Amino acid sequence: MRNIILLLFSLFAVATGLRAQSVQQQLSAVSDADYAGYDIVTLFDSTRVVMEESGLSHVYGHVLYKVLTPAGGRDFNCVKMDYDPLSAYVEIREVKVHRKSGLVEKIDNPVLDYPAPARMIYWGASQKMVAVGRLEPGDAVEYVTYKKGFTYALLHDSDPDAKYIPPMRGHFYDIVPFWSHQPVREKVYILSVLPSKKLQYSVYNGTLQSSRKNVDGRVVYSFSKKEIMPMKKAPHTLADNDVQTKLILSTAENWQAKSMWFYGVNEDYGSFVPTDEVKQKVAELLRPAKSENDSIYILTHWVADNMRYSGISMGEGEGYTLHKCEMNFTDRCGVCKDKAGMLIAMLRAAGFQAYAAMTMAGERIEDIPADQFNHCVTVVKRRNGNYQLLDPTWVPGVRELWSSAEQQQNYLMGLPQGAKLGLTPVSKAENHYLKMSATTKVNKKGALSGTVTVTAEGQSDRTVRALFRGRRSEWRANVERQLFSLYPNAKLQSVKYTDEDRYLEQPVSITYRFVIPDYATVTDNVVIVTPFLAKGFYKFAMPHLSYDTSLETRTMPFSDRCSRLVQISETMTLPPGYTSAQVPKARTATGGAVTFDGGYKLQSSVLQFHENIRFGKRIYEAEDWPSYRQAVMNQEFFMNTPVVLSR
Positive or negative CA dihedral for 193, 194, 197, 198? Predict the structure, then answer.
């Protein structure tokens, strides 16, 4: 092993040329003007990995960065490594500060080991850190690190190093971002594997310099990139790993192999064996069920609504190994894998074939079978042979079985026969409608009176139902606030809404009766008014209105929360006698998955207003932006352009 490590150091020097210059020469060669506006610049970031036959990997890091601003000296004055003590071992081996004056200080401060900051998931993650002390612009920090192990702990045997071996024993995988939020002059990644390990890799969203060499009976792969500059992304652009350069490596044969391993590790552990108590509960829950759909719906929402999302460390058995049914049913508490595992056990108790599946919320999963997962869900096999995804984590209080905020998202089912990587389909916009209808009247004093009804389904239903989270005593105030936040002088005559406790039985519906004094401008000669629903009522349920339309073009894909249909209609009765009208012209937008149709119809003293807006998917390509932008601009136009009537 020592010879291999020495060999890698030598290869690293040849590959990068960094040893050819002293650190001070490298620092003096950096022109701060080239990196104006940034707090630090990393001169080099090197990673050298040695993989053993078992899959255990030794990772050696070497980084040098220069402070450019006082803020950089403040924010980057600590060397820090995140790790899970149950599955990884880390060392901060050396830290030096190269002062602007040329003085080199070796930092002898103690290496501190603290629990990592956590929220909702408390799995015992830790951070090792070394305080560097005061840094000034022109100073630089150099540090050397070592790590073995991986991200998540699993069950392991008595071998002291077993807990550091990856879940798929004998295999290696890594996801290496070649992007940064601060400039990097050069980044290098070197991997040494045995010839028997069939490594596959791919570079996404860019190019890298690469080489492959046979050295001393091993195969050494080298990847590097120079002058990595932070990308300026427009709001709502996809995740960095989806649009910036990354390297993915894996020795796993394919996704089918990963699928069968995931199935086997949980079946061997007995994660989904229902206890007698669980069987009794399932029988009780399914008494009113009349169909296959009823059974799946009842069990999914029972788990969703009755297991609190909060993860605590159970020691051995975190990560890919799902906790056993008995513990989940007793604790009624856990993270996504616990909720998914509980649902699998209950479905099996009901006679269904059910399995666990892995997915990646918020990012794309590439074709290289590496560990690109952050979420666990359930899959059930229907009587017709089709598999259906269920997500008890994302559907508490939601009428769906699978959150459509996860559409166009990759997933991998853990099946005994193996499965290929899947992609969740687009959910029709009609499944997520937001409908608002109003009948209103403007009197001669400009007061507006009327009735407005808001209904929603799918993910729009979920958004509107946010008003009913928290204390029941606050629900009515939350509903009323939607009116008063726009019109503080409004007089609310009544408000009615569906029974939140029976949310599974019908979509949400809220009806307001109100009077708003001085709503419109009314004189003997003119009426100036904008329909109530044109002005952005329930704007929080229309996330597209938060998009910046000043951006004329996009070069990268972007995302919305979900596909969506917005239908707005209002019939407004106006004071009689005004015969001349300046009515905003109808507007449309059509292109790809987005359509808009909106406008007015004036007949005598009755003004009718409508908008129909369809957003057909969650992830859009750059070429979809013009039609998406136009639809938003059209709605904003009607929000800000009044109708003018005169005698």
Answer: positive
d(CA 21, CA 530): 70
Any idea how long the chain is?
A: 647
Strand ranges across the sheet with 57-67: 104-106, 88-98, 140-149, 57-67, 40-51, 184-193, 218-228, 209-215
Q: Shortest CA distance to 455 belongs to which of 498, 396, 485?
A: 498
8 A C-beta contact, residue 451 and residue 516: no
Q: Where are the alpha helices (DSSP H) in 188-254?
A: 240-243
Residues of the chain with pLDDT under 50: 1, 11-20, 153, 155-156
What per-residue string of b and e applies to 352-362 under the rule 16 or more CB within 10 Å gives b? Answer: bebbbbbbbbe
| Residue 461 Cα distances to 392, 437, 454, angstroms | 17, 16, 10
- In the prediction, which pLDDT does 18 show? 46
Full-model pTM: 0.90
- Pick from 252, 239, 208, 259: which is nearest to 369 by CA? 252
pLDDT of residue 28: 81
Token pair of 216, please?
Answer: 């001393």
- The half-sphere exposure of 116 on its side-chain side, counting CA atoms within 13 A, is 17
Spatial distance between the Cα atoms of 492 and 265, rounded to a whole number of angstroms:
59
**Residues 122 and 313 sit within 8 Å (Cβ to Cβ):** yes
| 543-575 CB burial, b ≥16 within 10 A, e <16 | bbeebeeeeeebebbbbbbbbbbbbbbbbbbbb
Give the distance from CA 549 to its chain's centroid: 23
Whether the CB-CB separation of 367 and 248 falls below 8 Å is answered with no
Distance separating alpha carbons of residues 281 and 307, to the nearest angstrom: 14
pLDDT at residue 319 in the model:
63
Helix (H, G, I), strand (E, B) or coil at 47: strand
**Residues 341, 347, 349, 354, CA torsion sign:** negative
Where b means 16+ CB within 10 Å and e means fewer, 437-459 reads bbebbbbeebbbbbebebbbbbb
pLDDT tens-digit readout, 581-622: 899 999 999 988 999 999 999 998 999 999 999 999 999 999
Look at residue 163 in the predicted model and tell me its pLDDT: 72
Predicted confidence at residue 159, as pLDDT, reads 61
